[in-house]
Design goal:
Elements lengths: L14 H38 L4 H33 L1 H20 L4 H29 L2 H12 L1 H15 L3 H4 L4 H13 L4 H9 L6 H5 L2 H35 L6 H29 L1 H22 L5 H24 L6 H33 L2 H8 L2 H11 L6 H4 L2
Helix pairs in contact: 1-2, 1-4, 1-5, 1-6, 1-8, 1-11, 2-3, 2-4, 2-15, 3-4, 3-8, 4-5, 4-15, 5-12, 5-14, 6-12, 11-12, 11-14, 11-15, 11-16, 11-17, 12-13, 12-14, 13-14, 13-16, 13-17, 15-16
Length: about 425
């Protein structure tokens, strides 16, 4: 008997209770991944002052860009490497270790004595979060039937904007940036709960038994059958990701420029809470929208709306009014919808035994470009005429995502259409 067969365990609780525990532990791990992802952006102006003291403005911009971009590179590496581990070692172990990883390095970020140490800790925090976002998507994709899967993946996708909202809320009430990073203790606890309650994905165990283990995942990944979907999936997800990260990584600095003359802490926190709230609503409704109009139409609506709204927000808005906060919320509704739709779109392009590796590549290949983009926004702010212009120019990627989606023919893998 194949060794993987021994990994099929009887669930310690009823199936419905188990699925609820599975979903909520995945949700909160992903949510605090969103909190940790955004936390440095919210606190960055204060953290840089604390770490650099008398540094010049240009030096501050360069180091800020380095901290933001290195996190994305860590996220990229983690998403790809944990995806390979997930297909090789299983979903349960990969979830536990990746959640523990980002929790520990988040705590260490708050204890860092220098900006160089912050950079290192942010890389490893991103490394863990990149794995969590791939693995939680796979656990939910493999654990639920078709219609419910779309709804739950949509709800799972709001974990990130809930985390963004939580980061803004934390900034609003906690002034010391170092104390805020002790939030990393929560994912450490979640990894322990997963070790107690999770069992291995039955779909993964079954797929491992059927696969020819002499053929490596990477060989299968670049086979003729899978390579087209890999390229298209990477381009579509990368387009959404670059636009999203360019926006929320530098939104606090854009807000700060609009409120020059004040500390801007509360305004930055409120803007990030607004962004998180809009993304929450968009992700929450995405499953129902997908079931109603289909994946392709949902993505086309999201890409088109994001580009138009980015133009209105970053090119036409000159003051931080109630209308500006409304625009931030509105554009992030479509951000949230796109993430919910993509969480279903990407894994279903590939067979189950390969899905974590492939999803990890698609989710994270675009992050390499994203990390470079986020870095260069900081370097090109003056040349491009301010943060608003810089963010908008990078948001042209939404048009790329729109046209790739328009001309791509998605083919769902049969393992996801029958369960």
């Amino acid at each position: 008997m194949n060794a993987t067969a021994d990994m099929t365990l009887t669930k310690p609780v009823g199936i419905h209770k188990y699925k609820r525990a599975l979903f909520w532990i995945c949700f909160f791990s992903s949510m605090f991944g969103g909190t940790v992802s955004t936390l440095m952006s919210v606190y960055l102006p204060d953290a840089i002052k604390d770490l650099l003291h008398d540094a010049s403005g240009q030096s501050t911009d360069n180091i800020s860009a380095t901290i933001n971009s290195i996190f994305i590179f860590g996220w990229t590496a983690g998403g790809i490497i944990w995806g390979i581990f997930c297909d090789t070692l299983g979903r349960k172990k990969s979830f536990i270790y990746s959640t523990l990883f980002y929790g520990v390095f988040t705590i260490l970020t708050g204890l860092s004595p220098s900006w160089f140490m912050v950079v290192a800790c942010r890389f490893f925090s991103g490394f863990g979060i990149g794995g969590v976002l791939v693995i939680t998507t796979l656990l939910i994709s493999e654990g639920y039937k078709d219609k419910k899967r779309a709804v739950l993946l949509g709800i799972l996708s709001i974990s990130i904007p809930v985390g963004i909202f939580s980061a803004g809320l934390l900034s609003y009430f906690v002034s010391n940036w170092r104390y805020a990073f002790f939030v990393g203790a929560i994912p450490v606890i979640l990894s322990g709960l997963a070790a107690i309650f999770f069992t291995e994905s039955e779909k993964w165990v079954s797929a491992r038994q059927k696969e020819n283990e002499a053929v490596s995942n990477l060989q299968q990944l670049f086979s003729k059958q899978n390579s087209k979907n890999l390229i298209m999936g990477s381009l579509v997800f990368g387009a959404a990701l670059i636009g999203l990260w360019a926006t929320f990584s530098w939104l606090p600095f854009w807000v700060q420029n609009l409120v020059s003359g004040s500390s801007g802490q509360k305004q930055r926190g409120l803007a990030m809470m607004t962004m998180g709230g809009g993304g929450l609503l968009g992700g929450f409704i995405s499953g129902w929208v997908v079931n109603r109009v289909g994946l392709k139409k949902t993505l086309l609506i999201c890409f088109g709306a994001c580009f138009v709204l980015a133009f209105i927000l970053f090119k036409l808005t000159t003051s931080l009014s109630l209308w500006a906060y409304f625009q931030i919320a509105f554009i992030t509704i479509f951000f949230g919808m796109s993430q919910g739709a993509l969480s279903m779109y990407i894994p279903e392009l590939f067979p189950v035994a390969l899905s974590a590796t492939a999803t990890g590549v698609c989710f994270n290949l675009g992050r390499i470009i994203t990390g470079v983009a986020v870095f260069f926004i900081g370097s090109l702010v003056d040349m491009l005429g301010g943060y608003g212009n810089a963010i908008f120019y990078f948001d042209f990627v939404f048009l790329i995502g729109f046209f790739i989606t328009l001309f791509n023919k998605q083919e769902r893998h049969s393992e996801y259409t029958t369960q």
